[in-house]
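hey m, so remember when u said the tokens were messed up on ur end? i reran from scratch. heres the input so u can diff it against urs
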Amino acid sequence: MISQTANITQPGENRTGITQHPDLVAEMIEGTIEFGPTSHGGVEALAENRARVAQDSDPVATMPPARDVPVERLPILDKLGARLAFERSGVRLYQALIGKLDVYGSFRGGPSRADLEQIRDDEQRHLLLAQTLIVRLGGDPTVVTPCANLQATVGHGIIQVLVDPRTTLIECLDAIMVAELADHESWELLARAIAPLGDKQAEAQIREAERTEAEHLTKVRSWLAAASALVMKQKD
């Protein structure tokens, strides 16, 4: 079995630090003095340019024409579109995490395959819930909403960690924690946003999804605590 902590705590070929090579640091500093900057300007100029480009840019995304959907529902449909996209990614993330467990095995206090399969299936149910609510409110679940577009960009780095063949189960649990924190908070915000519509059934379903995500968060935290204990034990 491949070691869970081999890539985390053991000395290797990492040469990114500079304190072990003071002579090379001195040469690097001399180089900046000799050749100087390749362009004029600074932080202020960069900020001004970003502001100028932002003013001239289109939005990241827009909602489709309202047509038969009341305009006041569009913010809810936007957030539901984000949950639909995020939960779809969540299914794939946990499937990738199951693959890591199959390679590395678990550890004392870590997740079992059944644990990860349960959370994956919960994400699938939340995906279907978001899809159902979008249709109920008159939306189109195939639309990539502005919030969905942004969350896809944010989540791209997490996906890269999970599918990287070099990462261990423990390292991937660190990445999953980021996803679970965002997921839980997003369902909580969605529950608040939908309350004014007066759809008690939808609000109750969203609150139930929020509670389930809170359970996921608790489990991932406990697995990471156990992983930290494992790493510290191996240092003794």
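this time it looks ok to me. The chain has a mean pLDDT of 89. if urs says something different then somethings off w ur setup not the seq
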